[in-house]
């Protein structure tokens, strides 16, 4: 199969240490990225600038106005045009990636050849590196700034009624497609990789990562194929009219769980997990190519350290999240953080607070007055109409003359 020409934006956060965020932009079609080339010293002055760059590459509205210097920096990196925005954007947030151990390089092999640049995201002008959570929140704000664009999830929530067995089936299909083999043998379960390595799936962290891989593969196939069918029908009905941009997003924390597990062979497991994730990304790119051709933009936010939730929060808000059996402590905290991250990309309107005190009394008086005036006007209108249709009218003497006595 020919290598697709895809415009790919790869955002890597928290790469060297907790809180450090880096940006890798990879453009295969040369339509969206300007002045390509490795720029290790490039610094974006704040998460808002990174979100502005994301919005410009995707053809969406930025979450907030940029100052003059930030706008000039984004404009120097992007060939922005309202008439040339991609047909689809895939946003993936991956916690636990790092260039130091080769994880980032392994994931980059899943992307087609093209020009690229790297940048570090600072907390502000002249400040240190921006925290990973701040970068992700800024990127998620792009969804709030574009309410007319649907952000569809690429995770287990997109697979209705899909339990552990269903996710394992999706992982088995994904492994076959990228050349691996899933060995489901209880405590000895493992994912055999094409390179000859293997990822044991006995620990809670490994099961979390495996479930995320299966959910990503299954949701991508389901969503992308459904949108491809709908797009073909839409184009046939509208005779080739332009489509709105389709945005798909997902958040993965399994790599970080593996990195923080402290297992004896954690480094080997992490390398195997990165290779497996790269294989799933290749299959996702193939599905996107079948659905949208070359007009696709990928953005992968790589967060080296997702902030862990408190123990009470993990037991409460994240308890219902789909995950491996017996996920406790660190894994449960990561699940809670993942759920919150997904909610940021799919915000719901905040309820309007009910007025209280003097404001409530004033609102009640205004409402009562308006109701009283409306009822009075209705009564007056009805009385006037009744009077007009029931009042007696004098006969016109020119039309009906008085009767005259006979002269005979």
UniProtKB/TrEMBL annotation:
Keywords: Membrane, Signal, Transmembrane, Transmembrane helix. GO terms for cellular component: endomembrane system. The lineage of its organism: Eukaryota, Viridiplantae, Chlorophyta, core chlorophytes, Chlorophyceae. This is DUF7794 domain-containing protein. InterPro entries: DUF7794. Residues 24-261 form the DUF7794 domain. Residues 311-330 are annotated as: Disordered. Residues 1-20 form the signal peptide. It comes from Raphidocelis subcapitata. It holds the Pfam family DUF7794. The keyword Signal applies. The keyword Signal applies. The chain crosses the membrane at residues 371-393. It comes from the Eukaryota.
């Amino acid at each position: 199969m020919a290598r697709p020409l895809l415009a790919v934006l790869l955002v890597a956060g928290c790469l060297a240490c907790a809180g450090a965020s880096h940006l890798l932009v990879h453009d295969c079609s040369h339509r969206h990225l300007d002045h390509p080339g490795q720029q290790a010293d490039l610094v974006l002055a704040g998460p808002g600038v990174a979100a502005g760059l994301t919005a410009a590459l995707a053809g969406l509205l930025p979450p907030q106005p940029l100052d003059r210097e930030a706008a000039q920096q984004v404009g120097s990196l992007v060939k922005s045009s309202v008439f040339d925005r991609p047909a689809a954007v895939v946003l993936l947030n991956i916690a636990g990636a790092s260039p130091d151990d080769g994880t980032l390089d392994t994931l980059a092999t899943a992307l087609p050849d093209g020009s690229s640049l790297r940048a570090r995201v600072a907390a502000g002008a002249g400040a240190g590196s921006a925290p990973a959570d701040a970068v992700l929140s800024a990127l998620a704000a792009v969804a709030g700034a574009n309410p007319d664009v649907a952000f569809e999830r690429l995770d287990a929530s997109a697979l209705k009624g899909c339990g552990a067995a269903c996710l394992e089936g999706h992982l088995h299909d994904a492994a076959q497609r990228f050349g691996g083999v899933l060995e489901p043998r209880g405590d000895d379960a493992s994912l055999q990789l094409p390179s000859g390595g293997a990822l044991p799936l006995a620990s809670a962290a490994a099961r979390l990562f495996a479930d995320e891989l299966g959910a990503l593969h299954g949701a991508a196939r389901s969503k992308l194929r459904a949108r491809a069918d709908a797009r073909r029908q839409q184009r046939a009905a509208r005779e080739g009219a332009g489509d709105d941009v389709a945005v798909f997003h997902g958040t993965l924390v399994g790599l970080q769980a593996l990195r923080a597990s402290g297992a004896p062979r954690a480094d080997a497991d992490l390398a195997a997990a990165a290779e497996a994730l790269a294989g799933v990304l290749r299959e996702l790119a193939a599905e996107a190519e079948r659905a949208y051709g070359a007009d696709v933009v990928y953005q992968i936010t790589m967060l080296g350290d997702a902030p862990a939730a408190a123990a009470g929060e993990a037991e409460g808000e994240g308890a219902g999240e789909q995950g491996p059996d017996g996920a406790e402590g660190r894994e449960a905290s990561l699940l809670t953080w993942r759920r919150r991250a997904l909610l940021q990309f799919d915000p719901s309107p905040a309820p309007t607070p009910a007025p209280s005190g003097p404001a409530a009394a004033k609102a009640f008086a205004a409402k009562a007055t308006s109701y009283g005036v409306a009822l009075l006007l209705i009564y007056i209108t009805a009385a006037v109409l009744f009077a007009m249709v029931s009042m007696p009218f004098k006969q016109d003497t020119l039309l009906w003359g008085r009767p005259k006595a006979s002269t005979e």
